Structures are given as C-alpha cells and as structure tokens.
Amino acid sequence: MKDTDMITDRDNALFEAGIKLGALYHQFTGSPVNLKTVKSLEMAIQESISVQPFARDITVSIDREAITSKVNGEFGYCELEGRMLDVRITICYKTIMADVSLAYDLELDYPLMKIDKVYSSNQS
Amino acid sequence: MKDTDMITDRDNALFEAGIKLGALYHQFTGSPVNLKTVKSLEMAIQESISVQPFARDITVSIDREAITSKVNGEFGYCELEGRMLDVRITICYKTIMADVSLAYDLELDYPLMKIDKVYSSNQS
Amino acid sequence: MKDTDMITDRDNALFEAGIKLGALYHQFTGSPVNLKTVKSLEMAIQESISVQPFARDITVSIDREAITSKVNGEFGYCELEGRMLDVRITICYKTIMADVSLAYDLELDYPLMKIDKVYSSNQS
Amino acid sequence: MKDTDMITDRDNALFEAGIKLGALYHQFTGSPVNLKTVKSLEMAIQESISVQPFARDITVSIDREAITSKVNGEFGYCELEGRMLDVRITICYKTIMADVSLAYDLELDYPLMKIDKVYSSNQS
C-alpha cells in the first residue's frame, strides 16, 4: 500500500467541511425571505449546521443588499439564493482544523466554496 | 359557462393554503436539529412562510419528544421529519379566510395536511 | 352552522392542488442542471409528484432557453429556478377536478401558481 | 508558513467530494417516491450531481426493500430518506482522485458518508 492510499485526519476534516457546505446550501436555499425575517433565517441555518458532526464553529451572514434588490415588488419577498450567503465554518476532526467558506465570487459569478486554512488542532 | 367553472375567492384561499403547507414541508424537512436548536428552527420556518402571499398567521411547533427519540446516540442530532411538525396557518384571500393545519395522524401514520375552517374575512 | 363553514370536495381539490405545487417547487428548485440532464430532471419531478394523493395528471417542462442563459461559463451548469418551470397538474378529489399551473409571469417577474379550471369529475 | 498550511490538490479533492454528498443528500431527500418511480429518481439524482465541478463518476442506488417497508398503506408512497441511499462518487481534482460513498451504517443507525480511497489520477 502506498502512502497516498492512507486516509488521514486531514482528509476527513476537508471531507466533513465539504459535506457541511453542500448540505447547508441545498437545505436552505429557496427559503422565502425578506428584510424582516432574514435574521431568524441566518440564526436557524447557523444552529442547524452546528449540530452536525465535527462542526466546531459556524457563522452565517445573508446579504441584505441582495435581498433588497431581489424582493418582488408585488409580493414583498424573495427566495434565499446561494449568492446571498456568506458562510464561515471551522471543522475539527481529531488533530486537524479546517476553515472553509462560501461566498459569492464576482469574477466567476458563482457562489464559491473554498478551503481557507488547514492547521493543527493544537495550535489554533 | 357553468357556475362551477368560475374561480372564487374561496378557491384561491384554499389553493394558497395548500401551497404554503407544501412549500414549508419540502423546504425545511431534512434540516439537522436537536433540542438545543429546535427553537430557532421553529422561528425561522414560521417567519419564512409568513412572508408568502396571503399568509395572515402561522404557528409552527416541533415535537420535542419526537426529537428526543430520534436523536442519533453517536452524533447527537436528527433530521426534521414531517411527522414532528405541528403547523397552523390562516390564509386571507380577499373576502375569505381559511385555517389549515399539518399534524401527525397516528391512525394513518402520516403527516396529514387538512382544512380546518373556511369563513368570511368579515366575521373572523 | 352556516353554509360557508362546510368543507367541500371542491375546497379539498384546490387545497390538494396547492400542496402539490408548493411541494414540487421547494423540493426540486436548487437542483444542479444543464441541457444534457434536464430531461431526467423533468421526468423525475413529474413521476415524484404523481405518486402524491389525488394527483391525476402532471406534466413538467423546464425552459431550455433559460438554462442556456443561466449556465455558468466556468462550470457548465446552473440551478433549477422556479421561473424555469412550466407545470400543469390535474387533481381529482372525489367529485371535483382542478387544473392548476405554475408558469413564469413576465409582468409580475414571478413564478406564478394559479388555478386554471375547476370542474366536475363526471364531465372531464 | 508551515507545510501543513499549504492547501493541496488532495485537500481540494476531498473537500469537493464532501460538497457533492452533502448537496445530493439535502437536495433530494424528502422527494415522494414509490417502486414505480424510484428508477427515474435515481437517474435524476445521478445526472444532477454529475454536472457539478470535479465530479468524474457517480452511481446512485435507492433501496427497494426500504421503500416497500416504508410506503404508506393508505397513500401508496413514501419519502426518500437518507438511509435508503447508496451513492458512490469519484472526484477528480487535478492530480488526485477520491472515491467516496454514502451508505446506511446498520451499527450506527446512520446514513454514513465516508472516504473510500484516495489515489493519483495517473494510476486510476
């Protein structure tokens, strides 16, 4: 067996980090929202994902300006879109911590998920 | 054109009521939840659906006992299931009010959506 | 008890119709899709909703032009949005049939759900 | 900067793998399904996730026995649950391939996502 074949804590930390972002995105986008209700939606997303395995820390922020520009004039609400989300998650898997994020990438015109930092759970 | 073909406020009130329950159910079931986070999830569901057209009033209650019995021993959370939900919605469409609900029906073993009351928006 | 308080087959037909559209919308919007996969997504949505109570007939059509214009240049796919959907559902509740639809309303800039026709299940 | 801080292709492969499984799970669980429609749902899930970035290969299999045991006697369908899913995904991120899976773990009573193999994209 080659070295590359061993699955490490680091591998699992990144894998778990991806799961949380994919889950969050596809569970909550589409939710009806407006400026009056955005706070409770942020809170619920944050708390919901925080109960999942290996999630150490999570902050969820929804772009108020994007909501304002998307709210339907007739009906007074819009749907939560991926590009409105700014999410930061820290995963701790045994010896390894991983910071990952979801944020709208203007250049790619895409809600981009990426790895920000990987480090030992001893340093932090 | 026969009388039956005319679409009434009452028809629309019931149609809108169904939309809200179907939307809520399929948007939010599957959300990770435990006893510490259930309150924020209830609040978010309630506020999210309240912004939709013709929704006058809504209360969402998630069954704590069902959560307790479903929480995974290893991981400390479960997913929101339809049968954990007790939802009451009042729709107001012009002259008509409709009270509808979603609640677990033990006999049918089914999260049942039903019409509870239809009445004039003048009486209420 | 006044006449208005009695819940009729017609009420239930419209209520059930609303449930199906709300369910479909919030279950499937957000699904990754492109022109190569749109057919299987249409089929799955159609068949999935067809198993629900009182659904007699359903057709689901996803707007290819909308997909083409939304597909991300870098990644080659987009998400299913409500405004890409054209859905026709016929509900049969005992004596009553109801035809309802979901289609993008250009003027309202909104994926509009509406009642198209209500009629006796004997005439059809 | 320490070695551990550099983000590698391997990190990204695992991160992307997790995203796909989390997304798939929370997008499609809850879908109404029975034995007649299970095939089209499998196909749609498979094709939908296949369009996402870095997804090289994916197979989705839904447990027919689990559906049979869960189908509601009165209504003839059930909802897709995570524990009904057996999913295998191969991610290719530049030089690295990762095989991951979602399958019901009987002992944990949990739909477990895990890393099966990580290897160079040259060997395969």
UniProtKB/TrEMBL annotation, chains A, B, C, D:
It is an enzyme of class 4 (lyase). It catalyses: 7,8-dihydroneopterin = 6-hydroxymethyl-7,8-dihydropterin + glycolaldehyde. Substrate binds at residues 16, 113. Residues 8-115 form the Dihydroneopterin aldolase MtpD C-terminal domain. Keywords: Lyase. It comes from the Archaea. Its EC number is 4.1.2.25. Pathway: Cofactor biosynthesis; 5,6,7,8-tetrahydromethanopterin biosynthesis. InterPro entries: DHN_aldolase_MptD, MptD_sf, MtpD_C. Pfam families: DHNA (PF04038). Catalyzes the conversion of 7,8-dihydroneopterin (H2Neo) to 6-hydroxymethyl-7,8-dihydropterin (6-HMD). Belongs to the archaeal dihydroneopterin aldolase family. HAMAP family: DHNA_arch. Homotetramer. This is Dihydroneopterin aldolase. The lineage of its organism: Archaea, Methanobacteriati, Methanobacteriota, Stenosarchaea group, Methanomicrobia.
